[in-house]
Design goal:
two-stranded antiparallel ribbon; eight-stranded antiparallel beta barrel
Length: about 130
């Protein structure tokens, strides 16, 4: 017996499942508009990666703010807004900015179809970094 109603009865390590979800990272000032994977590492950390490897590391702070360290060394701070659940994971709109005022938007947990149709509203409605 593997599952009973909504309860899994075997250890998670014995099951195969997707560990990541679709994300979109957009930073026009950096020339970035990427569809990537966001993988929850636990402890408030989310690894952002593409087919070549890590793109950045997102940290949710206890005060509700977020920090993003890109692999190229750029650092951003901002806030996250929960939108609702998709496939058991919280979908988020995240607005960030660096010290120079360059803005970055990160959408996590939306399906590729939702992202293509402008999920979560326009950039003007997204959280400010």
């Amino acid at each position: 017996l593997l599952a009973l109603d909504g309860i899994v009865t075997v250890p998670r390590s014995e099951l195969s499942y997707a560990t990541g979800t679709t994300a979109q990272l957009s930073a026009p000032a950096l020339g970035l508009d990427l569809v990537i994977v966001a993988e929850d590492l636990g402890g408030g950390l989310t690894l952002l990666r593409d087919l070549r490897g890590p793109v950045g590391l997102l940290r949710h702070r206890p005060d509700g703010r977020v920090d993003l360290a890109l692999e190229n060394g750029d650092r951003f701070e901002g806030e996250s807004r929960a939108i609702g659940f998709r496939r058991g994971r919280l979908a988020e709109q995240i607005g960030l900015a660096d010290q120079d005022g360059r803005r970055l938007t990160l959408m996590i947990g939306f399906s590729p179809e939702e992202l293509a149709s402008g999920a979560g509203g326009t950039a003007a409605e997204r959280p400010k970094g």
